[in-house]
Amino acid sequence: MQRRSLKDESCPVARSLDVIGDWWSLLIVRDALLGKTRFGEFRDSLGLAKNILAARLKKLVAEGILELEPAADGSPYQEYRLSEKGRSLYVVVAALAQWGNGCLFGEGEARRVLVDRATDEPLPPIALRSAEGKVLGSRDIRLTAPGEITA
User: Fold this and answer.
1) CB 106: neighbour CB atoms within 10 A?
2) Which ranges of the chain have pLDDT less than 50?
3) How far is Cα 84 from Cα 64, in angstroms, rounded to an integer?
4) Which residues pair with 129 in a beta bridge?
5) How many CA atoms, within 13 angstroms, populate the side-chain half-sphere of residue 78?
6) Exposed site from 41, 69, 87, 90, fewest CB < 10 Å?
7) What is the pTM of this model?
């Protein structure tokens, strides 16, 4: 079954999911954020079939999330590097990690935690804030209709 494209939707969540909505794509982005660059590194990390990994990498390159570059070590291989667009997904990956840690692990269960590289201190929860700096909850926000706000 072919999934329907969401690229023309007015909803930014739908458009985002059209590009990075399957779990393999976000796991590839996660691995790229952690420094993986080569096909074999992604394959070994994810345990993904070569054809599926190749298709996901091709799509992420086509969407401008990843860029293909010659290998830094001068070998004949190519490396996948996050573009600026791809690097900006760190907030999405971090938010998913924090949500998962808070909602999907049991008491005392081993888990990875996001920490500040400079201090090794765990990061505080990601929060949305108003223009005045007030932390906003899910009931404090809404998604506007097209043309409702022209900012």
Assistant:
1) 6
2) none
3) 9
4) 135
5) 10
6) 69
7) 0.87
